């Protein structure tokens, strides 16, 4: 599979053995800006966690450009159910705590499979968008010493009406327009990806999902970014993060929707670069 994250890099696959938490998994991943890893002392790692309908390919070239700006090498991967990774069986529904499972079980297992040791993890920056932003927050809380810092872009820490309403509208678009065809370019099993995400977010039981209590476990530097035109969440999300994590810094982007890396990439890259530079 050609990887649109860079012009030349092909994605690869990591095999995760079955555990009590999950069955055997094949995870699609790629490295970006690998030349940075050849510098003396080895450049820190930036790890990217995609959105609820995202994949390795849907990032396009943003991870490469950000890593070049930061002087880091990057790791981009598709979570199970997305991109070229093991698809979700169609009869399986994601549980309410699916994001916690990704942070607690899948991400550490992938790091193990790629032989990323604890010393390298301590220098790693975890960068997530939307659901991936929530997973970044959870990883930072669950493994407070296994990263250098985190960047959460348009994350969710509780469920808002605006999120559910927009996700319901997206389902209608998926079933009545060419959205399914467009998304199929980025997922080996597009229905696995779409309905895994859509079904859990529209499940009435998910309305009670809330990770604000977990945020107090975050000790490392944290940047939270939100666009003011986001139709999947409001500023209440990152304002709540600031209440629970006093050392967190917030960036609020004007004229920006749910995907700052597409809507305002220059402003986002500048904010991340300035934040990281103060902590290196």
TrEMBL record:
<feature type="domain" description="AB hydrolase-1">
    <location>
        <begin position="47"/>
        <end position="271"/>
    </location>
</feature>
<dbReference type="InterPro" id="IPR000073">
    <property type="entry name" value="AB_hydrolase_1"/>
</dbReference>
<keyword id="KW-0378">Hydrolase</keyword>
<dbReference type="InterPro" id="IPR050266">
    <property type="entry name" value="AB_hydrolase_sf"/>
</dbReference>
<dbReference type="InterPro" id="IPR029058">
    <property type="entry name" value="AB_hydrolase_fold"/>
</dbReference>
<dbReference type="GO" id="GO:0016020">
    <property type="term" value="C:membrane"/>
</dbReference>
<dbReference type="Pfam" id="PF12697">
    <property type="entry name" value="Abhydrolase_6"/>
</dbReference>
<protein>
    <submittedName>
        <fullName>Alpha/beta hydrolase</fullName>
    </submittedName>
</protein>
<dbReference type="GO" id="GO:0016787">
    <property type="term" value="F:hydrolase activity"/>
</dbReference>
């Amino acid at each position: 599979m050609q990887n649109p994250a860079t012009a030349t890099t092909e994605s690869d696959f990591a095999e995760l053995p079955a555990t009590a938490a999950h069955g055997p998994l094949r995870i699609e991943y790629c490295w970006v800006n690998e030349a940075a890893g050849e510098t003396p002392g080895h450049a820190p790692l930036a790890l990217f966690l995609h959105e609820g309908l995202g994949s390795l390919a849907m990032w396009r070239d943003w991870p490469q450009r950000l890593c070049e700006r930061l002087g880091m090498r990057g790791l981009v991967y598709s979570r199970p159910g997305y991109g070229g990774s093991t698809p979700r069986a169609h009869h399986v529904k994601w549980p309410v705590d699916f994001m916690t499972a990704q942070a607690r079980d899948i991400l550490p297992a992938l790091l193990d499979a790629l032989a990323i040791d604890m010393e390298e993890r301590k220098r790693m920056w975890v960068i997530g968008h939307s659901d991936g932003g929530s997973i970044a927050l959870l990883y930072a809380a669950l493994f407070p010493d296994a990263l250098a810092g985190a960047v959460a872009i348009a994350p969710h820490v509780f469920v808002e009406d605006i999120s559910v309403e927009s996700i319901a509208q997206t389902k209608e678009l998926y079933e009545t327009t060419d959205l399914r065809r467009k998304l199929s370019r980025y997922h080996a099993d597009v229905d696995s990806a779409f309905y895994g995400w859509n079904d859990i977010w529209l499940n009435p039981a998910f309305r009670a999902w809330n990770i604000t209590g977990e945020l107090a476990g975050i000790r490392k530097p944290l940047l939270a970014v939100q666009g003011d035109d986001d139709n999947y969440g409001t500023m209440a999300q990152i304002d709540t993060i600031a209440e629970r994590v006093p050392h967190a810094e917030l960036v609020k982007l004007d004229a920006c929707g749910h995907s700052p890396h597409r809507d305002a990439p220059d402003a986002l890259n500048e904010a991340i670069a300035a934040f990281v530079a103060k902590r290196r």
